[in-house]
Amino acid sequence: MASTAAGKQRIPKVAKVKNKAPAEVQITAEQLLREAKERELELLPPPPKQKITDEEELNDYKLKKRKGFEDNIRKNRTVISNWIKYAQWEESLKEVQRARSIYERALDVDHRNIALWLKYAEMEMKNRQVNHARNIWDRAITILPRVNQFWYKYSYMEEMLGNIAGCRQVFERWTEWEPEEQAWHSYINFELRYKEVDKARSIYERFVIVHPDVKNWIKYARFEEKHGYIAHGRKVFERSVEFFGEEHVDENLFVAFARFEEKQKEFERVRVIYKYALDRIPKQQAQELFKFYTVFEKKFGDRRGIEDVIVSKRRFQYEEEVKASPHNYDAWFDYLRLVESDADPDTAREVYERAIANIPPIQEKRHWRRYIYLWINYALYEELEVKDPERTRQVYLACLDLIPHKKFTFAKMWLLYGQFEIRQKNLQAARQGLGTAIGKCPKNKLFKGYIELELQLREFDRCRKLYEKYLEFASENCTTWIKFSELETILGDTERARAIFELAIGQPRLDMPEVLWKSYIDFEIEQEEYDNTRGLYKRLLQRTQHVKVWISYAQYELSIDTSDRLQRCRGIFEEANKGLRSCEEKEERLMLLESWKEFEQEFGSDTTRERVKKLLPEKVKKRRKLTAEDGSDAGWEEYYDYIFPEDAANQPNLKLLAMAKMWKRQQQEEEDDEEDDEEDEEENNGEVDRELTVVTKQQIQYHYPGK
User: Fold this and answer.
1) Which SMART domains match (predicted)?
2) Are 467 and 455 in contact (CB under 8 A)?
């Protein structure tokens, strides 16, 4: 109590379970349910059947049932099922007036209940109260015009009663609300059941306006075809194509149109329809169209028609590619190749104009290299295929105006334009164009092409002027000097050619001086000016001591048919050997001596051959230390070096080399002698071992006879 008074509640003790083992008999939930089902304690017995024998009992029964229904309605007025049960019970007693009253009371409670209206109207129709049913359907479709079930049942009732005009009026009232597609089809089928084709056509006219779908237009056209109105069907298809236009075009419409014409054996119309559709529908949406077109051409077309289908499909692919990447010039090339082979010139021009409109965004030559071929192909197409010289000229001039010549140019465009003008026998325009090119943006290729052109025209004075301009532009170009001199040689002016060579070798900077000197020497040899040739070789050797120049000089002296040619050739070899002693490239000196040796073997004596043989170097292997780029040690490398006997500085090295070889030979001989002694000793030891083995076996047999 003290604790309770203090405001604390005493917690009862929890009973401890001492035996936690499971019970012997286990009861499951399934067993409990089964026992309850078997006993059926909750089920009440059915009430006894009551048999009514007189009118008073019947009235009591009616009163009791009505009181029950009214009580249920009073409890919950919004439960429409109670009202429907009540009305159906009254209907079963043939109390139609009472049932009608109950339905009306129910409609006052919920006039938007669809099931209530349907039960009410079905009751009136079942009891053949036609006017009452019409009244109910009129009220229903006025209050709930979007409930299609009311309209269907109302129209069906009127048609079953034979009231065709009334049924038509119901459908007309329904179509004013623009219902779903099935309602229109029901109306059309109703008219067709009574052979009213014109009225069905008028319904279709309104239908395709309310529901402007492709499938509805196709159904309209098939309706006309089915009833034999081919012209009307074709007109429907044509109207549908105009109605949808190019923005909302659908492949199914064209497929249906084409198949319609195919049934009428209008194959040209079919082909035109397919081509018209393929030109306007994107590739991704035209797969079925391609398939049907291909099947049609295989059935009724020729090889050309099938190829047209394939070309159209490829054209769509290229269109998608160039739309996705306008600067993909390879795609444009493929597209243009296709158009050129199959389309008319206007279509090809249109594609070319679209292609050349995609100018590279950066003014760098590497971005323009592919683009410029679009212009070249365009010009060649106009000239060779269309044979329109004036338009070809416009293409060339437009291209040359477009190229930024101050940053870069394309010599091939200038040359192609010049060659085109010459083909048109307009020499003045060709020269003017190439002259403009040289003035704006001189290039080696331009000069070469212009000179080649004048050479073909045999305008040698112009060629001379062009070579002079060319050499002013690129004085270091040895090929130009050589070509200029060759031109003068061909024209027979050797002095002028020699003067050109002299000017050329006097230039401070040349790109290939060895080629120029060789050409000058060959020129003098052809003119049989041997003294001039020797003078050129001497002048060249003053500038360079290259071994090939010496060898060439010697071979030249050998080739001249004179009595002292061998002495001259041998003297050049000796002079070259002296000159190359100070050369660091020992391979070049070795090359000279090999060439000298070949000369002596062919034309020399034993004495001269022996002399050259003594001059040949010794090939020795050496090692040198390698250093990395950062200065660290990179190891050792073996290489071959040549030691010439003539060099006084190399004499000690030769003696040392000879002594080393002799020492190596002695070491080899000593090793061979030692190997022979070891082999003899091994043979003696082997014989002693064999003798000991024989004696041991004899002793074992003597002491152990059984073994």
Assistant:
1) HAT
2) no
Q: How far lies 370's CA from each of 333, 410, 634, in Å?
A: 10, 12, 49
DSSP letter string, 195-259: T-HHHHHHHHHHHHHHS--HHHHHHHHHHHHHTT-HHHHHHHHHHHHHHHTTTS--HHHHHHHHH
Dump pLDDT digits (tens) for 109-147: 999 999 999 999 999 999 888 999 999 999 999 999 999
d(CA 107, CA 113): 8
Minimal CA–CA distance to 121: which of 98, 143, 93, 100? 100
Q: In this structure, are residues 392 and 420 in contact, taking their beta carbons and an 8 Å threshold?
A: yes
Who contacts 607 (Cβ-Cβ below 8 Å, separation ≥6)? none
User: What is the 8-class DSSP label of residue 623?
Assistant: E
Cβ 141 vs Cβ 109: under 8 Å: no
Number of alpha carbons in the 13 Å side-chain half-sphere of residue 469: 18
Distances (CA, A) of 42 to 31, 36, 37, 39: 17, 9, 9, 9
Q: Which residues of 447-473 are buried (b: 16+ CB within 10 A; e: fewer)?
A: bbbbbebbbeeebeebbbebbebbbee
Give dist(CA 96, CA 47) in Å, integer. 29
- Give CA–CA dist 373/593, Å, rounded: 56
State whether residue 332 is helix, strand or coil.
helix
User: Cβ distance 410 to 446 under 8 Å?
Assistant: no
Which residue type is seen at 504?
A
The total number of residues written for the chain in this structure: 707
Q: Are 119 and 87 in contact (CB under 8 A)?
A: yes
pLDDT in tens, 576-590: 667 666 666 666 667
- In DSSP terms, which residues pair with 641 in a beta bridge? 620
Q: Which residues of 589-603 are buried (b: 16+ CB within 10 A; e: fewer)?
A: bbbbbebbbebbeee
Q: Note whether 619 and 593 are within 8 A (CB).
A: no
* Segment holding 626, helix H or strand E: strand 618-627
- 437, 411 Cβ separation under 8 angstroms: yes
Helix (H, G, I), strand (E, B) or coil at 534: helix
Identify the three-state secondary structure at position 622: strand
Cβ neighbours for 323, distance < 8 A, ≥ 6 positions apart: none
| First vs last C-alpha separation in the chain | 120
Query: What is the identity of the amino acid at 491?
Result: L
Phi-psi region of 19 (alpha: psi -120 to 50; beta: other; left: phi over 0): beta
Q: How far apart are CA 143 and CA 114, in angstroms?
A: 11
The angle that helices 148-160 and 181-193 make with each other, rounded to 10 degrees, is: 10
Own/partner long-range contacts of 670-675 (Cβ < 8 Å, ≥24 apart) = none
Question: In the beta sheet, which residues pair with residue 246?
Answer: none
Task: With beta carbons less than 8 A apart as the criterion, state whether 550 and 521 touch.
Answer: no
Listing DSSP states for 638-686 in one string gives: EEEEEE-TT-GGGHHHHHHHHHHHHHHHHHHHHHHHHHHHHHHHHHHHH
Determine the Cα–Cα distance for residues 512 and 478; give it in Å rounded to an integer: 6
The strand pair at 633-643 and 618-627 is best described as antiparallel
Q: What is d(CA 611, CA 574) in angstroms, rounded to the nearest whole number?
A: 11
Of 33-42, 262-271, 330-339, the one with minimum mean pLDDT is 33-42
Residue 229's pLDDT band (cuts 50, 70, 90): confident
Most confident of 468-472, 688-692, 697-701: 468-472
**131-137 contact pairs (CB < 8 A, 24+):** 132/100, 133/157
Amino acid at 559: S
Structure tokens at 500: 């050109």
Name the packing angle between helices 565-579 and 586-603 (round to 10°).
160
Residue 2 token pair: 């003290």
